[in-house]
Design a protein that fits this description.
Elements (H helix, E strand, L loop, with lengths): L4 E8 L8 H9 L2 E7 L16 E5 L6 H18 L9 H14 L5 H9 L5 H17 L6 H6 L5 E6 L7 H11 L3 E5 L4 H4 L9 E4 L2 H11 L6 E3 L6 H11 L10 E5 L9 H13 L4 H4 L2 E5 L19 E2 L7 H9 L3 E4 L4 H7 L4 E2 L8 H4 L21 H12 L5 H12 L9 H22 L1
Parallel strand pairs: 1-2, 1-4, 2-3, 4-5, 5-6, 6-7, 8-9, 8-11, 9-10, 11-12
């Protein structure tokens, strides 16, 4: 029997790996040993794998000494900001402002908040942007990894590295990839969510293989990050596998009898709207004053964004206008039950809209304007809209939204479109085919192909 394939799993942020135990179970079944990168004493290992002797967690020295850390932080934040000066991302006003603020803060600007708008409004010609991007990339390539990281990774006796990533601003991916390349370790990166390639950091240190959800992300990887298309595999979203399982469980349970239609409002992150509860209460007022009784008398359930954000300290007013559903970050069972119990879903801009489509529930949105800068100010907002080939029914204001909501509550929506989009976007191999086995097989196939190539060369 061949020796197990020993894989370092590193995620950014560190906790992501805990949310996809299905991928790691498949890797263990296929003969891998897993070494998870821990951070500051936090345990990144999914609870389901904690007792497996083939799974360990180690801390890696990914930090730098203070003086060097400040310089590297400034360089990388400038790189992140420069990315959103790209004319191809001209609509990313929210990400441009966010990264501008991060640059100013890293530079020690005394009035960073006030200056961020002015910096974010600057424009570069395509030629200047290309030159600046090339210069920043060259600086990054010359930057050595943190002291001791290469030696520590070398002592782990690894065969490969798997990066689970949001393409996070300030993430550790660059340094891990540099070390893996120096040690001759094959690298695979799994993109975590639908907006990561368009709204997060530029992957200027590229892994050998990039695993993406769909053809849209393939196009983004090539056009926005410069990946050779042959290095990108379209496999689907493994982080939805548990949700699919929960949908099947919830569908077998009897549905509660309702005299009124149910609208489920799904909260978005603070990156979309810092004070979304205010937007939500205005929406409730518009619904309750609707001329259409089906809308006006509907049962309203709100699920605040589970990551907190603008919802963290919110408490509902003392009325019975709506029900509040407490939410945790990882609860596919409860989300599946809420969606199947709803007749329509309302959201500004959140990945939970995709879960709604997979549950066969129509999604209706409205433009919240300046109160939600991360809605229209994000390129990926348009990906799900009906007018751009998606499924989300869009409205320019609340009056138009309330009218469309009434039609949707009466069943005027294309249920087939929901599932077709969900399949193409989340499970392009077929709705009945889990993605985790495909991801695990792709990771190991790449590792073993590289090992065979080394034998031939040797």
């Amino acid at each position: 029997m061949p020796d197990p394939t020993r894989i370092l799993v590193t995620s950014s942020p560190w906790s992501l790996s805990r949310f996809i135990p299905t991928v790691f179970r498949e890797l263990l079944v296929l003969g891998a040993d897993l070494v998870f990168r821990a951070e500051s004493g936090n345990d990144p290992v999914p609870a389901e794998l904690g007792s497996d002797p083939r799974v360990v967690a180690v801390e890696l020295p990914v930090g730098r000494r203070p003086a060097a850390a400040d310089s590297v932080r400034l360089l990388r934040r400038l790189t992140d900001f420069n990315r959103f000066l790209d004319p191809a991302l001209a609509e990313s006003s929210w990400a441009r402002r966010r990264t501008a603020l991060r640059v100013l803060a890293a530079a020690g600007h005394p009035e960073a908040q006030a200056a961020a708008d002015d910096l974010a409004s600057q424009q570069l010609s395509p030629q200047v942007h290309t030159v600046l991007t090339s210069a920043l990339n060259e600086l990054e390539q010359r930057l050595p990894p943190p002291e001791g990281l290469l030696e520590t990774v070398e002592c782990l006796n690894l065969d490969a590295v798997l990066l689970v990533s949001r393409c996070s601003l300030g993430g550790a991916e660059r340094d891990v990839i540099k070390v893996a390349r120096a040690l001759g370790l094959p690298t695979t990166m799994l993109v975590w969510s639908w907006d990561n390639l368009s709204s997060k950091a530029l992957l200027n240190e590229q892994p050998d293989r990039l695993l993406v959800w769909n053809e849209r992300q393939l196009e983004e990887a090539v056009r926005l990050h410069g990946f050779p298309p042959e290095h990108v595999l379209v496999l689907g979203a493994p982080n939805f596998d548990r949700f699919f399982d929960e949908l099947e469980v919830q569908r077998m349970r009897p549905a509660p009898a309702r005299e009124r239609k149910t609208i489920l409002y799904l909260g978005s992150s603070k990156n979309v709207a810092k004070s979304e509860p205010d937007v939500f209460l205005d929406w409730v007022a518009a619904v309750r004053s609707a001329e259409d009784a089906v809308v006006r008398d509907a049962r309203i359930v709100v699920r605040p964004y589970p990551g907190g954000g603008g919802w963290r300290r919110w408490r509902p007013p003392g009325s019975e206008e709506f029900e509040v559903e407490p939410a945790r970050k990882l609860e596919p069972d409860r989300l599946a039950a809420l969606l199947l119990d709803a007749d329509a879903v309302v959201a500004l801009n959140t990945s939970a809209e995709l879960e709604a489509a997979l549950a066969g529930r129509p999604v209706v949105t409205f433009r919240a304007g300046e109160r939600a800068p991360g809605q229209e100010g994000s390129v990926h907002f348009e990906y799900l809209l009906e007018q751009h080939g998606g499924f989300v029914i869009d409205s320019l204001d609340l009056d138009e939204h309330v009218g469309k909501l009434g039609r949707v509550l009466r069943g005027a929506f294309d249920s087939r479109r929901l599932l077709e989009f969900g399949e193409s976007f989340v499970r392009p191999g077929g709705l009945e085919r889990p993605v985790s086995p495909r991801v695990a097989a792709a990771v190991l196939e790449h590792v073993r192909r590289e090992a065979r190539a080394d034998l031939v060369v040797g």
